[in-house]
Amino acid sequence: MCSCLSGIPALYESFRQIFNPESSKGSPNAHEAYYNRFIQPKKPIRVAITGVAGQIGYALLPMIANGDMFGPDQEVIIQGVDLPIDQVKENLKGINMELEDGYYPLLKRVIFTTDPNVAFKDADVGILLGAFPRKQGMERKDLMEKNISIFKQMGSAIEANASKDCKILVVGNPANTNCLVCSTYAPSIPKANFSALTRLDHNRARGQVALKAGVNLERVKNVIIWGNHSSTQYPDVCHGQIDGKPVESVLAGDKAWLKGPFIEMIQKRGAAIINARKASSALSAARAITNHIHDWIVGSAPGEWVSMAVHTDGTDGYGIEKGLMYSFPVVCKGNGSWDIVKGLPIDGFSRDKMKATESELIEERELAMEIVKN
User: What is the reported pLDDT for 203?
Assistant: First the structure.
């Protein structure tokens, strides 16, 4: 045989392995195996949303339908649930018409319902917006009781109906503890699949640092939100960077601001927005939810971390008590997996702030678990 032809069998075998791999051997239809492996379009992602008729839901729906959350080639099915009230039902009819009229090629189907079991049926992602708001004169325990009732119901619906790999993001406040309660009632879903939203605080911190430095937003990286989504949260810039340089170095003349007014501004930003627009954050919250889920599913940007409240199991490296939903810096690897950024040096100032917000979360958890037992 001519030497130039001697390599053909090996070359053929390599092509066969690519286009008719081991996984397709024994298949009665090699063409079907090839289609399933290389050509078959992505399965639509089912997104369950509670409290969908509210302001955040209204701002969030077009971001999901437009591909901002899952990517420009990922179809979605939206499964929204809200209260069985006539006015809410009529509102949802109008929202559905707007989605039909909005030209969203990736939006495969919309299901609006008043039954959480329908909304969470086969859900791949759950976004829990709905929660009972704190009213004037309401005691903390009363608020917790109202929300435990809601998140017990949602957790049970997730347990009974959602995909066992479903990713759950809790937004309704108190988000961290509501998330913990919800996870308690969906025991077959891994704790790592539950997260509470602190990305809004993360975005706020990043934005204010950019404004102070007079730079474009994308030049600021790796700020951190530690702890609870509340006024005890700790917005930390000790490890943040502006154009690769430490924030504290670039803003050397503003260290007092970074240690005082900046922290308080981020902690109370939500209240400031309510005072200004007589309503809570909606557009920025929807954007943060979209950022959070996108990075969780698709992956965070190389060289960057983001803030997520996730379940503590004693391996975080910062000594945070087990059994809380605590916000950490995390790297998202895609497909719903994440790792806490470990080994960051923590000074005394930061340690005190981290412990203060941890203490609040412990108090919330104890109160919540007491109510659950009763």
Answer: 98
Closest CA to 306 of 318, 317, 290, 320: 290
pTM above 0.85, yes or no: yes
Helix/strand/coil for 45? strand
User: Candidates 3.30.420.10, 3.90.226.10, 3.90.110.10, 3.30.365.10; correct CATH number of 199-373?
Assistant: 3.90.110.10
Torsion, Cα 287 291 294 296, to 10 degrees, reads -140
Give start and end residues of each alpha helix (H) in 219-347: 247-250, 255-259, 261-267, 269-277, 283-298
What b/e readout covers 225-248, taking b as 16+ CB neighbours within 10 angstroms?
bbbbbbebbbbbbbbbbbeeeebb
pLDDT digits (tens, 9 = 90+) for 104-132: 999 999 999 999 999 999 999 999 999 99
Is it true that domain 45-196 has CATH number 3.40.1280.10? no
> What end-to-end distance do the CA atoms of the chain give, in Å?
85
List where CATH 3.90.110.10 sits in the chain.
199-373
Q: At what angle do helices 55-65 and 283-298 cross, to 10 degrees?
A: 40
223/206 Cα distance (integer angstroms) = 6
| Residue ranges, CATH 3.40.50.720, the chain | 45-196
Write down the pLDDT at residue 141: 79
Q: b or e along 55-84 (b: 16 or more beta carbons within 10 Å of the residue's beta carbon)?
A: bbbbbbbebbbbbbbbeeebbbbbbbbbee
> Which are the catalytic amino acids?
229
Distance CA 107, CA 65 (A): 5
For residues 235 and 362, give the distance between their C-alpha atoms in angstroms, rounded to a whole number.
Answer: 19
Helix (H) or strand (E) holding 89: helix 86-101
* CB crowding 111-144: b at 16 or more within 10 Å, else e: ebbeebebbbbebbbbbbbbbbebeeeeeeeebb
Sign of the Cα pseudo-torsion (137, 140, 141, 142, in order) = positive
d(CA 313, CA 179): 15
- Which ranges of the chain have pLDDT less than 70? 1-41
pLDDT value of position 140: 72
